[in-house]
Design goal:
Oligomer: single chain
Pfam families: Esterase (PF00756)
Protein name: Esterase
Number of strands: 10
GO molecular function: acyltransferase activity, transferring groups other than amino-acyl groups
Strand content: 15-25%
CATH superfamily: Alpha/Beta hydrolase fold, catalytic domain
Shape: globular
Largest sheet: 10 strands, mixed
Order of helices and strands: EHEEEEHHEHEHEHHHEHEH
Strand order of the largest sheet: 1-10-9-8-7-5-6-4-3-2
Length: 367
């Protein structure tokens, strides 16, 4: 483990064609302008349906005008602690787990043992559904704004809704995510300093202005591909990043400021004071050498490869982004727990890192 100063079974194996789709979706992870400060006076989000999955799991369908689609609804999966009830006099801290590109609210319970991990913890786990191309951002929409407004929905509507209706604590929250969700976790922590007591990113797309030094994927290239997969104009999300991606004119920056304003790398200074956990692989196919039920992951896994491998184009790009991000944290003297290892972009690694970061996340919540 490096401290920067300065399903279960074979669920991790990708289905045929899955990797290519996720590549396009995952690397669409960039941000849009931060949502307005403070929650609206009247919360427009409403619960329209609740499904009891088991004794401790609820799927909650929420409607909001900030959401896209005909129904303007999305699901949220909640893992509830022992003793929870909607009428309790007390509240519970929350751990938010964000899905990656192409994922949904069921991903964490489908591909990890998160239920067992939190079984004896006195906290609510919140797993919201967004969209495959959400980037956890309010979309630019060619300067017009409007739906979808993912950041506004999650932070200004869903969070207060959970506080009001599901006894979520108003102050004690932590956030973690994988891939696009890793971007979301760090993006939210930077956009709202102090709103989350800790943030963790697993293979996070932390700098979508990344320029590959050796012919690999550039961040904006993947955003454009993601627009095709999501059947939308990619410029709706954050506009165009300008030079050196869209033009040879260094003075032509187009909407680069929007990309920078929502990039964890460019907003890293706003992460000061928030406990951070950052993990990523190098794109080399090598087993995680850890499975659920093993002892806690050993720090020896964090071999800190200086260069990327070539087996997995997704994690190859992720490696470059995170190398840049940790360098920026060091320049700012912002501490972070970093684990860089061999590995590729898939669930066995993310579950391992969730388990490794879990004590930090729970400690920040006082659980």
């Amino acid at each position: 483990m490096v401290h920067e100063a300065s399903r279960r079974g074979n669920g991790g194996r990708a289905r045929a064609g899955w990797t290519l789709a996720v590549l396009a979706l995952l690397l669409t992870a960039v941000g849009a302008p931060p949502a307005g400060a403070g929650a609206p006076a009247e919360n427009p989000a409403r619960v329209v349906r609740e499904v009891r999955v088991d004794d401790r799991t609820r799927d909650v369908q929420v409607r909001s005008p900030e959401l896209d689609g005909l129904t303007h609804t999305r699901w949220v999966r909640l893992l509830l602690p022992k003793g929870w009830s909607p009428g309790a006099a007390r509240t519970w801290p929350t751990l938010w787990l964000l899905h990656g590109g192409g994922g949904d609210h069921k991903d964490w319970t489908a591909h990890t043992h998160v239920e067992e991990l939190v079984a004896d913890r006195d906290a609510i786990v919140v797993m919201p559904e967004t969209s495959g191309c959400s980037a956890y951002s309010d979309w630019w929409n060619h300067g017009r704004g409007g739906a979808p407004k993912w950041e506004t929905y999650l932070l200004d509507e869903l969070r207060p809704l959970l506080e009001r209706a599901y006894r979520a604590d108003t102050r004690r929250a932590a956030v973690a995510g994988l891939s696009m969700g890793g971007l979301g976790a760090l993006k939210f922590a930077a956009a709202r300093p102090g709103a989350f007591r800790a943030a963790a990113s697993y293979s996070g797309a932390v700098n979508l202005l990344h320029k590959s030094p050796d012919g690999g994927f550039d961040g904006p290239d993947a955003v454009k591909a993601g627009g095709l997969v999501c059947l939308t104009d990619w410029k709706r999300v954050w506009g165009e990043p300008g030079h050196p991606f869209d033009t040879t004119d260094p003075a032509d920056v187009r909407q680069r400021a929007i990309w920078q304003r929502n990039s964890p790398l460019y907003q890293a200074a706003r992460l000061a004071g928030t406990p951070l956990y950052v993990s990523y692989g190098d794109g080399t196919k090598k087993g995680p050498d850890w499975t659920w039920g093993d002892p806690a992951p050993s720090p020896s896994r964090c071999t800190d490869p200086a260069a990327h491998g070539r087996d997995d184009g997704i994690e190859r790009a992720i490696h470059g982004m995170n190398q840049e991000f940790r360098k920026r944290l060091a320049e700012l003297r912002i501490p972070a727990t970093v684990c860089a290892s061999t590995g590729v972009h898939t669930w066995p690694y993310w579950e391992r890192e969730l388990v490794a970061s879990f004590p930090m996340l729970m400690g920040a919540l006082g659980v």
